[in-house]
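Q: Got a minute? One more chain.
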Amino acid sequence: MAIYRANTLQRLCLTFISSLLLTACEPDDKVTSLEPIRLVRTHQVVAQDGNIWHELPGHVDVAKRADLSFRVSGKLEQMLVSEGNTVEVGQLLAKLNDTDFVIQLNSLKAQYKRAQQDFDRAQSLVEKGVISRSNFNNFETDEATAKASLEAAEQNLAYTQLRAPFSGQIAKRYVDNYEEVNAKQFVFTLQDLDTLTVKVDVPESFMINVRQGQRPEVYALFDSIPKQQFPLTFQEVATQANSDANTFEVTFALPPIEEYTVLPGMSVTARAAPISREPSLASRIFVPTHAVLQDDAGTYVWLVNATALGMGKVFRQNVSVGTLSQLGLEVVDGLHGEEHLVSAGMSKMYEGLDVRFEPETKRL
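A: Always. Here it is, folded:
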C-alpha cells in the first residue's frame, strides 16, 4: 500500500512539472508591445465666412546687428568674451598686441616734437627776414604733416581695442585668441535681442489689395507655442520686389515674449487679418492641399475622432474636392465643419490609430 501511494505521488509530481514546461514553451499571443501615443498636428475645419485671412511664413530677426572687426591688422592678445555673453555699450571685447603700435607712436611723437621746434625757430627767423617766406612754409608743412601722422598713430593704437558699439549679446565668434587677424576681418557678431523683428516675404497679390495707409492686423504664431498669437507692429516695407519670387519683404516689430526664449532665425507664421471679403467663398470649406490624399479607393483625408480631451482615434474620411484657391483645396462633399483634420504626418496614419492632439488648434 505504501509503495502504491509513493508511485501515485511520483506520477502526480511528474504530471505537474510537465504541464509547467509545456506552458512555458507555448507562445503568449496576449503579449503586445506598448507604443507611445503619437502627437499629431491637426486643424479644425470650419466653413468660410467670406473673410480672407492670409498666413505667410517668416523668420525672426533683430532690429540691430553688427559684424565687428578691427580696423588694423595684428595678433590677437586677449579674447574677453564668448558666444552668448551679454555685453554693454563701450565694453572691451578683444585686444590686439599693441607693441608695434606703441613703438610707432613714440617715434612719431619725437618727430612731431622736432618739427614743432623747427617751426617755432622758423617763425622767429622769417619775422626777422633771415629766411624766406617759402622756406618758412616748408617748415609749417613739415609740422602739420608730423602732427597728422602722430594723430593717426594714436588712432591706430586705439584701434587695437575692439569695443561694443551698443549693448547686446555675442551671437557668433569667428576667430580664436593668438590668431593673426586682418583689418575688417569679422571677429564677432553682436545682436540686440531686446529689439526683435519678424520679416515676411509678401506676394504681390496680397500687396496690391492693401490700400494706401491701410495697416491690417498681423499676428505672429509659433508652432512650438500653441494656443497663443502675438501682435506685430508694422515697421517698413521694401518697395523693390525680390526678382526671384516676386515678393516684397515686410518688417514687423515683435513685442518681448518674457516666458519663452525667442531667438533670431526661428521660423514664424505671420497671420494677417482680413483686408477684403469675398462673398462667393462664404459657407465653403477649404483645406490645405497637402492634407488631401488619393489611392485606388478614391480621395480622402485623415480625421481624428475625439475620445477624451486631447485624445482620439484616427479614421479615414472619403471626400470630393473642387477647385484650388488661395485658401486651399475646396472640399465639396465629405466634410461639414468642426472636424479635426490631420495636417502633418499623414503617411504614418492608419485606421483606428490612437493619437494625442491639441483640441484648440488653428481653424481653417
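A: The chain has four helices and 24 strands.
Q: Perfect, thanks.
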